[in-house]
Amino acid sequence: MVLKVTNTLTGRKEVFEPLIPGLVRMYVCGPTPYDHTHIGHARAYIVFDLIRRYLELKGYRVFHVMNITDIDDKIIRRAKELNVPWEEVPRKYTEEFLDIIVKLNIKMPHVMPKVTEHIEDIIDFVSKLMEKGYAYESHGSVYFSVDKFEDYGKLSKRKHRDEWRQEEEFLKEKRKPYDFALWKRAKPGEPWWNSPWGPGRPGWHIECSVMSSKYLGEQFDIHGGGQDLIFPHHENEIAQSEACFGVKPWVKYWIHVGYLTIKGEKMSKSLGNIIPVYDVFKKYKPEVLPTYIDS
After folding, report:
1. Per-residue confidence (pLDDT) for residue 195, from 0 to 100
2. Residue 120 above 90 pLDDT?
3. Which has the minimum average pLDDT: 46-55, 60-69, 75-84, 253-262?
4. How far apart are CA 159 and CA 236, in angstroms?
5. Which CATH superfamily is domain 22-276 in?
6. What is d(CA 261, CA 218) in angstroms, rounded to the nearest whole number?
7. Do residues 93 and 37 touch, judged by C-beta distance below 8 A?
8. 38, 116, 163, 224: which could form a disulfide with 255 (CB 3.0–4.6 Å)?
9. Whole-Å CA distances, 243 to 62, 128, 146, 175, 275
10. CB atoms within 10 A of CB 98
11. Given pLDDT bands bounded at 50, 70 and 90, which one contains residue 169?
12. Which strands sit side by side in the sheet containing 61-66, from one edge to the other?
């Protein structure tokens, strides 16, 4: 039987054929550990564990990479709220996440890179984009010039540039409202690393491009994540990666998991309708959760 997957990039069901016969290279966007893991998060990891297990059952060798975003605006804000050193926030919630993965019997990725362990790789990647003319420095930050990448919008199918506004608090220092940050200059009291553009830290989108390509190569088979990551995160990943490597497509199959909904609404912290995984474990055995969230 031919294996087919629904590819978000093309919008079609396609016959699955990895770039290297017999080997599937798969990257799944991992957590930003700034709060408790809820069952909406868990659903995505359960689904990609199922995909991995099925591919292995079909005889493929699967090399699975999932990142840990251990520096981010949300982490910094959370640390300020708790009045603790920022490093304590990702440490605490990463430990919780890994414990949940074990309890749910999800296979551990072969590599789980952390952003803070790849700062030099990120700086090198940003430097290459600047050398190729796809990025520019402004006020100590570096931005990707979206107009230089003709295919921007091909994943999310967004065609009108007034829909692309990103990081609006920095509009004055960007050439276009839809340009996005590759490197963010340091703000007072925030963590920072040295760079050719001054002290700062990586932008969110560049992190996944760097870590995925470092371990899977300049082209690989599957990039996965939640449906909410299609725009702008995955759209931006495609732009900066294809611009840097000069390859198309950077990823052959994009696979996205739909939202977990409660009473017709997406489960999210902003709506206050989340159910932490540990709360479920207080009432039920962990093996109950995969059946519950897919019912």
Report:
1. 98
2. yes
3. 253-262
4. 14
5. HUPs (3.40.50.620)
6. 35
7. yes
8. 224
9. 27, 9, 10, 18, 39
10. 16
11. confident
12. 61-66, 23-28, 220-226, 251-257
Burial class of residue 254 (count of CB atoms within 10 Å of its CB; 0-12, 13-18, 19+): buried
Q: Any residues with CB less than 8 A from the CB of 192 and at least 6 apart, and which?
A: 186, 199, 200, 201
Give the closest residue to 223 by CA, choosing from 44, 101, 82: 44
| Residue 295 scores a pLDDT above 70 | no
Do the beta carbons of residue 67 and residue 208 sit within 8 Å?
yes
Distances (CA, A) of 132 to 109, 196, 234: 33, 16, 21
pLDDT in tens, 60-116: 999 999 999 999 999 999 999 999 999 999 999 999 999 999 999 999 999 999 999
- Compute φ and ψ for 19, nearest 5 degrees: -65, -35
| Amino acid residing at 125 | F
pTM score of the predicted model = 0.94
Determine whether 134 is exposed, middle or buried from the number of CB atoms within 10 Å of its CB (0-12, 13-18, 19+): buried
- Residue that the structure tokens 């995909």 belong to: 51
